[in-house]
Amino acid sequence: MDAQRVVPLTLLAQAGVSAALAALLWAVHGETTGVSTLLGGAAAVVPNAFLAARVLKPGRDWSPSAVLRSAWIGEIGKILLTVLAFGVIFGAVRPISAPGVFAGYIAAQLMVLAGLLIGTGGNGEMVTKS
Fold it and tell me: How far apart are CA 130 and CA 125, in angstroms?
């Protein structure tokens, strides 16, 4: 698979898994858990999308120093957005299910591992378009 497609597909997978898990937990445990799970997934997907947008910006300078600078800014922004998201979720949302929030967050983050496996073809080497 083309390495440029792995990132958007990973973000889509994160959102899809978060929504599916939220629907399942909503059906089993109720609205509070379902909404909490969806918010936890969003706390992973939005910061990851920010990082992806910084690193994969179209028309960018692809020199190593420019890529490294974008990666650092993207990662710092991702961390700050994650902290902000959890602060808003736990500070403003009532009622809240903490296990639901963390289930959504963890499920979404696990999709990053799946994206890495897809992007490397499962053998540890990045697949590139030939």
Answer: 14
